[in-house]
């Protein structure tokens, strides 16, 4: 397929495909996901969400942050950034183990859906918020500046890494928002997509999937340590525009060092 070179992430410099002529890659994403927002709560996708929620919750220890202990008064704050949040799968997944969540997405319709779903997370309203914005762009959107968008314990990105224009830049820009010792977590598709991807969806992607080495090398390049990656034993299956998508999925993590690693 013309859209997908067989290189991965950081080898993509110079390529530029967008959904509609004249739209930047990010605008193409906002445009596409605005239209997708309704379907994001379809039974087919909710099934993926339930599956991912249990896979991720099974790995709380592996993820390796100190989770909130809500039984203890004045338990320390555990702050999640749910980046490219969509309707908030990562927020709902980690809600029982964190004290606050911040969603950011380039699609206004997704942010609207996220805000409608806040009660489902079980977190109180004043502990959850979501805004339209882009942290990866240079400069970042004005909506995502200030202390509320800094010093996260966990940044989690669900099925969005393959939509970012430059994977290395995304890891760099987002890691800046982590506390020292904070964890960067991605779940996304492993390997190449085989078969047909609906045209407009394909145009929002830079790559259709990643190999372990692709993710590992970007994390290392951007200074994250304690890399780990697990491929789920069972594929994730869902419908997109009448097409059945059957994909291998991985969960990857890296940690921002407690102190910056001295550069030599
Ligand atoms: C497949 S959805 C996944 C949503 C959610 N994280 C989940 O797992 O259900 C991908 C999301 O990435 C968002 N997105 C794409 N590029 C982005 C960017 N540069 N910055 C922020 N969000 C972005 C899209 O608007 C869309 O909501």
UniProtKB/TrEMBL annotation:
<dbReference type="Pfam" id="PF08242">
    <property type="entry name" value="Methyltransf_12"/>
</dbReference>
<protein>
    <submittedName>
        <fullName>S-adenosyl-L-methionine-dependent methyltransferase</fullName>
    </submittedName>
</protein>
<dbReference type="InterPro" id="IPR029063">
    <property type="entry name" value="SAM-dependent_MTases_sf"/>
</dbReference>
<dbReference type="GO" id="GO:0032259">
    <property type="term" value="P:methylation"/>
</dbReference>
<feature type="region of interest" description="Disordered">
    <location>
        <begin position="1"/>
        <end position="21"/>
    </location>
</feature>
<feature type="domain" description="Methyltransferase type 12">
    <location>
        <begin position="81"/>
        <end position="184"/>
    </location>
</feature>
<keyword id="KW-0808">Transferase</keyword>
<keyword id="KW-0489">Methyltransferase</keyword>
<feature type="compositionally biased region" description="Basic residues">
    <location>
        <begin position="1"/>
        <end position="17"/>
    </location>
</feature>
<dbReference type="GO" id="GO:0008168">
    <property type="term" value="F:methyltransferase activity"/>
</dbReference>
<dbReference type="InterPro" id="IPR013217">
    <property type="entry name" value="Methyltransf_12"/>
</dbReference>
């Amino acid at each position: 397929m013309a859209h997908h070179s067989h290189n991965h992430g950081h080898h993509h410099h110079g390529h530029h495909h967008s959904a509609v002529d004249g739209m930047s890659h990010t605008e193409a994403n906002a445009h596409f996901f605005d239209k997708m927002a309704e379907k994001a709560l379809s039974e087919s996708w909710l099934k993926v969400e339930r599956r991912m929620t249990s896979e991720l919750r099974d790995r709380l220890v592996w993820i390796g942050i100190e989770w909130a202990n809500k039984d203890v008064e004045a338990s320390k704050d555990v702050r999640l950034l749910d980046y490219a949040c969509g309707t908030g799968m990562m927020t709902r997944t980690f809600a029982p183990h964190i004290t606050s969540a911040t969603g950011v997405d380039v699609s206004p319709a997704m942010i609207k859906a996220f805000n409608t779903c806040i009660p489902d997370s079980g977190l109180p309203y004043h502990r959850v918020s979501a805004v339209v914005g882009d942290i990866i762009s240079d400069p970042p959107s004005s909506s995502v500046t200030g202390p509320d968008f800094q010093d996260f314990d966990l940044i989690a990105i669900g099925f969005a890494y393959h939509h970012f224009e430059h994977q290395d830049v995304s890891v760099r820009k987002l890691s800046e928002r982590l506390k020292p010792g904070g964890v960067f977590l991605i779940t996304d598709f492993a390997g190449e997509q085989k078969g047909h991807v609906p045209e407009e969806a394909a145009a929002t992607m830079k790559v259709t999937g990643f190999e372990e080495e692709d993710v590992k090398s970007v994390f290392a390049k951007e200074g994250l340590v304690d890399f780990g990656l697990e491929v789920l034993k069972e594929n994730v299956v869902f419908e997109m525009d009448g097409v059945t998508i059957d994909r291998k999925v991985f969960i990857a993590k890296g940690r921002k060092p407690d102190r910056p690693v001295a550069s030599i």
